[in-house]
Amino acid sequence: xxxxxxxxxxxxxxxxxxxxxxxxxxxxxxxxxxxxxxxxxxxxxxxxxxxxxxxxxxxxxxxxxxxxxxxxxxxxxxxxxxxxxxxxxxxxxxxxxxxxxxxxxxxxxxxxxxxxxxxxxxxxxxxxxxxxxxxxxxxxxxxxxxxxxxxxxxxxxxxxxxxxxxxxxxxxxxxxxxxxxxxxxxxxxxxxxxxxxxxxxxxxxxxxxxxxxxxxxxxxxxxxxxxxxxxxxxxxxxxxxxxxxxxxxxxxxxxxxxxxxxxxxxxxxxxxxxxxxxxxxxxxxxxxxxxxxxxxxxxxxxxxxxxxxxxxxxxxxxxxxxxxxxxxxxxxxxxxxxxxxxxxxxxxxxxxxxxxxxxxxxxxxxxxxxxxxxxxxxxxxxxxxxxxxxxxxxxxxxxxxxxxxxxxxxxxxxxxxxxxxxxxxxxxxxxxxxxxxxxxxxxxxxxxxxxxxxxxxxxxxxxxxxxxxxxxxxxxxxxxxxxxxxxxxxxxxxxxxxxxxxxxxxxxxxxxxxxxxxxxxxxxxxxxxxxxxxxxxxxxxxxxxxxxxxxxxxxxxxxxxxxxxxxxxxxxxxxxxxxxxxxxxxxxxxxxxx
Length: 594
Prior knowledge:
57% of the residues lie in helices and 10% in strands.
């Protein structure tokens, strides 16, 4: 059975923790590291500290996984950190995650000089010498030394108790981690990311992640509502941790307009997010261009420029590859493929977003409509018809599906009619035909006659015209109303224009005789008001004929129907002319009353 792909690791990294703390327990567990853990947790930063784990096999298997599941690692170097093979193994794993997964690593030098760790001198040198003398770790020593040197070369926090209070340093660390986390927090993607994994796998090769000697612009294009922004957000979440800075500029088209205060605000957002600034004032977009180039030319950034519709927007936000540091990736989403080419985005780095296939469309619609994989039996055909008409556009599937969650037949009818009008009727005949075919014979006959002859007439008047009992009529009308096939306003019954046209086609298919009869009725309806009683009488006859036809009984012959009508209306001469050229008359009637 298909399952919702929201758990796929290819959509977003499986972060379980914000921060992993690596430390030497004997030195700092009961003091600095414990206080740091409490301070991080207090502000909502999910931090892993191995207080609950015991040394042994559990640690050996659990800690590497905890490191992989963390966005950041804080390494608290202390005097005896390098004496512990557990700590050194942790450090090797942390640096592997930094290199392979883009994990952020921040060292704290607690009462020890960074140079002592970097150069493996002093107490660090002594600890490593003792480990070497044991003869057990020769194969690991080189990795340990490399990891120590690489970590010590990173930007971090030195601490000397005599120059800075411990609480002050902890506050600085918490603020820095909070700032970085805010820049790397996952963007909201979609409640039900159906089919998203397919698009990510398709676009990922265009990014060339790991190719750090070039700046690359990638274009994602496609029609409105196809999911370009959602895909871009998912890709941003997946890869932003690999870059020194990142910014997702959403809805640039709207934000750069007059109501959005122009492109200068978008430029300010770009700089604040990539540089970690609280605010910046550019004054105008021309100055913004200069500042972006000056501040980001050496920085490896991931930038998404979403929903672009004008070349000037790109020129002022990402005017060229030289604006950004090596390894940067600029992702542009737009409806206009030509805009990408005009900005110099390589064709081989541009990707069109395809519509969802029928399977994924059905899955997405059902998740949003029923909160499960499959629709209830009574909604199977209607659901499939909606899916076919929407034709794989995720935004429409989500919007319409969500609007129908927990709704009854009337709301389904409203959405069906709305989509029908929006799609210019294409495909909606199938939906309405299914709804009509599912009616009881009585309701079907009532609907077809109202749709084609009695639309807009008073409810009681229609009941009298059809000459059926009040209870049967009300039962039929209630059923049609609940299915949103008719609506009642001020006691008058109305049918949509599209349903009236479908009624004509259904009647045509049912019987050429009834079709001709309908042409005459429509002709009489508009020709004169004096014959209204006769028209109503003919409508009554039509209703009975439709009902009999639905019951499978023999339909009255053509000559008898024509004769009955002409006798009732006194239009024998007109019918004689009609009989001479019936096809011409039909075309004329439809043209006249369309």
